[in-house]
Amino acid sequence: MKDADWFRDPCPQPSKTHEEGAEARQTSLTKPPGSLGVLERLAVRLAGLQGTDRPKAENVAIVLFAGDHGITAQGVSPYPSDVTVQMLGNFIQGGAAISVLSRELNASLEVVDAGSLAPDDLPGVVTDKPRRGTGDFSAEPAMTAAELAFALAAGRRAVERAANAKPDVLVLGEMGIGNTTSAAAITASLLDLPPVEIVGAGAGLDDEGIRRKAATIADALQLHGLTGALADPLAVLQAVGGLEIAALAGAMIAAAQARIPVLVDGFIVTAAALTAARINPACRDWLIFSHRSFERGHQIVLQALEAEPLLDLRLRLGEGSGAAVAVPLLRLACALHAGMATFEEASVSGPC
Ligand SMILES: O=C(O)c1ccc[n+]([C@@H]2O[C@H](COP(=O)([O-])O)[C@@H](O)[C@H]2O)c1
Ligand SMILES: Cc1cc2nc[nH]c2cc1C
């Protein structure tokens, strides 16, 4: 198959020329240099990513990938898997947090069923899945190599659809009961850390539940031979990943290849980002990390990616909600960059 390795194709670099132009403009604006802190850095980064002197974050596409997880049979989540499919209905009916945020932001919202237990004909949802739910990775691989390839490509297909509207930024989110267990297993394996250092409460496990969750992951990593040596990211995804997590990784690589900046959400999306960056390191440049989630392992994954998130609001919802909440910051950074007067225009003196 000609395109089987599409995710290894190069990702372009951000435009140095536009970054330098934006940097020079920031220095000329009526403020002490650097005084708008991270907002300045954001405008400069977006200028480089969008290849323009006037970066924007007006046209926002939100894509949310859903998947179910066989590992829930081990009691790793306080909620039943049914909630994933029920929430798909809520996204479409407009009652979920991300539905509200997408309306407030005038953003498009596409919900992709990348592997939930739902039937194939859910109205309002794009069904693009190789199977319903993953295998229970405490006993078997989460998915086959062919299913992994399908899920990665489902991420790319979603980016191709989103790209038609030429979005300024792409917000990526997820929904999947059990997916913090999968994300923690991926992270522990790729970073070669004991699962207890990563595992958190997810949707609300108590301390005893968290201990069992960590032990379940530690046993599974042994079973699949994923401890110790530098793990192959595709092998890790196949053994302990999720279909929505694989789709997210594919979407991030495809977005980078298509020069679309991505706003990364919380713990699960960041675990997908770590995987994507291990598969194709150049995609990292295209990822903007929106927030630090309250989920225990998130800071560790962010550190591994050398990422400084924009916000820390103790969010732990998922659905792309943290990334959506960061969009107004991007908009304000761009408005300041475009709209402030220069020292010369405003006849304001520079430093003595
Ligand atoms: O985004 C996060 O950081 C985050 C942290 C904890 C939980 N979640 C959400 O909660 C669900 C997974 O929780 P769990 O306990 O079932 O693994 C899934 O639908 C995620 O979107 C999301
Ligand atoms: C109700 C509910 C909504 C969610 N949205 C994302 N993850 C979630 C988990 C639960 C349990």
UniProtKB/TrEMBL annotation:
One Gene Ontology term of the molecular function aspect: nicotinate-nucleotide-dimethylbenzimidazole phosphoribosyltransferase activity
One protein family per Pfam: DBI_PRT
Known EC number: 2.4.2.21
Keyword terms: Cobalamin biosynthesis, Glycosyltransferase, Transferase
Gene Ontology BP terms: cobalamin biosynthetic process
Reactions that this protein is recorded to catalyse: 5,6-dimethylbenzimidazole + nicotinate beta-D-ribonucleotide = alpha-ribazole 5'-phosphate + nicotinate + H(+)
Keyword Disulfide bond assigned: no
Position of the signal peptide: none
Ranges where the record places region Disordered: 1-33
Pathway: Nucleoside biosynthesis; alpha-ribazole biosynthesis; alpha-ribazole from 5,6-dimethylbenzimidazole: step 1/2
Active-site residues (renumbered): E319
Record-linked InterPro entries: Nict_dMeBzImd_PRibTrfase, Nict_dMeBzImd_PRibTrfase_bact, Nict_dMeBzImd_PRibTrfase_N, Nict_dMeBzImd_PRibTrfase_sf
Keyword Glycosyltransferase: yes
Record's function text: Catalyzes the synthesis of alpha-ribazole-5'-phosphate from nicotinate mononucleotide (NAMN) and 5,6-dimethylbenzimidazole (DMB).
Family, as annotated: Belongs to the CobT family.
Protein's name in the database: Nicotinate-nucleotide--dimethylbenzimidazole phosphoribosyltransferase
